[in-house]
């Protein structure tokens, strides 16, 4: 087995591990968002500005996570393209 084949297998393993971990983290984030939404709908004492700040924060976090995933996927695609050229 040559070095290129080993590097390709290592990259594929790392991508699979990252995808699995990111999927698990995404499920936890979605569950936390549901909890926060339930809390905010029952929090009559909290002003609307506070509720809006929290929902904006959650939306920004969700967008940042999806941007991070796109960047990582793009970089894995670049590595795979490099291996294909060899």
Largest sheet composition:
none
**Overall mean pLDDT:** 94
Multimerization state: single chain
Strand content: under 5%
Structural class: mainly alpha
Count the strands? 0
Basic shape: elongated
Q: Report the end-to-end length measured between terminal Cα atoms.
A: 15 Å
Q: What fraction, in percent, of the residue positions are helical?
A: over 70%
Determine Rg (CA atoms, Å): 20 Å
Low-pLDDT residue spans: none
Number of domains: 1
Task: Note the total helix count.
Answer: 2
Summarize the helix and strand pattern as letters: HH
Task: Give a description of the structure.
By secondary structure, this protein is mainly alpha-helical. The protein has helices at residues 3-42, 48-85. The chain has one domain. Helix 1 runs antiparallel to helix 2 (48-85).
Summarize the structure in short.
By secondary structure, this protein is mainly alpha-helical. It is built from 2 helices and no strands.
Keywords:
mainly alpha; elongated
Write the layout of secondary structure elements.
Blueprint: H1 3-42, H2 48-85
């Amino acid at each position: 087995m040559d070095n290129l084949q080993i590097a390709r297998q290592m990259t594929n393993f790392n991508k699979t591990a990252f995808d699995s971990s990111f999927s698990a983290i995404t499920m936890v984030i979605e569950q936390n968002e549901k909890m926060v939404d339930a809390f905010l709908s029952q929090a009559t004492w909290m002003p609307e500005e506070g509720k809006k700040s929290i929902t904006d924060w959650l939306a920004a976090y969700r967008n940042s996570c999806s941007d991070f995933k796109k960047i990582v996927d793009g970089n894995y695609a670049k590595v795979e393209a490099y291996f294909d050229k060899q």
